[in-house]
Amino acid sequence: ALALSAASVMTPPAWTMAPKDSQAMPMDFSHVTSRAQAEALVKRGELVRIRFFPKRFGGRADRENIGYVPPGALMMIDFANDRVSGLIDLKAIDRLVVEPKYRGKSIVPVQIVYICSGEGEATIDMTLNIW
Asked: What is the spatial distance between Cα 41 and Cα 34, in angstroms, rounded to a whole number?
């Protein structure tokens, strides 16, 4: 299994990190329980709209396929989609399931899990930790 961690992929260079004596606030989107709240945060730049099943793999802009994530998660999502593209090009997989995982009643996923499989091949899972 391949797991991608937000901490390892999204760590900024040392010169942009906050001083050691400052208190970093952890991300928490548990209060975002409606699309209206999420869209308000999109307008403020705190969330971005995504397609869980990407357009390049045939994902439509259906309500069920639209989700919200913090802007910093886009790099991880693009990386995961590139890895899936590579596996498709190699004919290593022919099925993809994308499962958002939520905390409480929040509509902002805490994780997005990509489950890739092919005929007779092992399953390859990628878990993106969003917040």
From this structure: 11
The runs of H, that is alpha helices, within 28-115 are: 35-43, 74-89
Radius of gyration of the chain (CA): 16
Q: Which two tokens stand for residue 103?
A: 């905390």
Q: Supply φ then ψ for residue 30, to 5 degrees.
A: -65, -20
- Continuous H helices in 24-73: 35-43
**Structure tokens belonging to residue 11:** 């760590």
Q: Is the pTM of this model over 0.85?
A: no
pLDDT tens, residue by residue, 45-94: 999 999 999 999 999 999 999 999 999 999 999 999 999 999 999 999 99
Take residue 32 and report the two structure tokens written for it: 């975002």
